[in-house]
Amino acid sequence: MITKTIPFFDPHKIALSGQAFRFVILDDTHVELVAKDRYLQIACLGDNNYAFSCSEAEFEELWKDYFDLDRDYVKIYESIDPSDSYLKEAANFGYGIRILRQEPFETLISYIISQRRSIPAITTSVERISETYGRKIKAPSLKSPFIKPSRDTYYAFPTCVALSKADLSAISDMGVGYRDRYIVEAVHDINSGKIDLSSLSKKSDNDLFEVLTSMFGVGTKVANCTMLFGFGRTGRFPVDVWIKRILDKYYGGSFDTSPYPETAGIMQQFMFYYERNGASRS
Fold it and tell me: What homologous superfamily does CATH list for 2-68+99-230?
């Protein structure tokens, strides 16, 4: 166990922000997640202090980057145009949300699954795929300030090689609907070397977007979500039904991202979280 003081960090809000589908709220002060082939529990201790159920070495190696802790989110928050009352309100409500730097393959498959689906449905399919093809992770035995994990056994999201063992029928059984073909094709493209995920991080945003959208079943929204949450391209601004509703209602149909060339995706998360979780407004 280690403890850290982290400003602008709210694991509960991050869990509800729709970025990742294996991030679970346990109670008012504890969350758990499976990512990077590891289990992690976070205990909120108050006054920006948090306990992490990992070693210092693991935190530095994995979780510091995963939670984007080297970025100054207070400065980003303060950069919001004060005349944009909706965005300022959304950022106030979402104070503490950070962009997760997730594993690209898991992010790509998860967002292929996400098309025209609710978050609970996406979560169910992602869990079924992980339990069927992923590596088993035994729940740790934890002491205070942590609580008992919600399960005895967890599963890592499968590697591309592991998932390539599943044919179309097997993927269909995961409850992904018509997206089964998209998943099978994506796995084939990556496993065959047609798409080299390991090299994509070196590409420009435009080139990365072009590669992703060349894949069967990967459109603009899935590509932008994969770039934002899987490749750390925080200048991307994915538009789903929630964001489109916001843009139509408050911004005349489009949001000018030019004031936020490197942080538009962070602004998008404030908006998304507020619209889904905020108090009703006329």
Answer: Hypothetical protein; domain 2 (1.10.340.30)
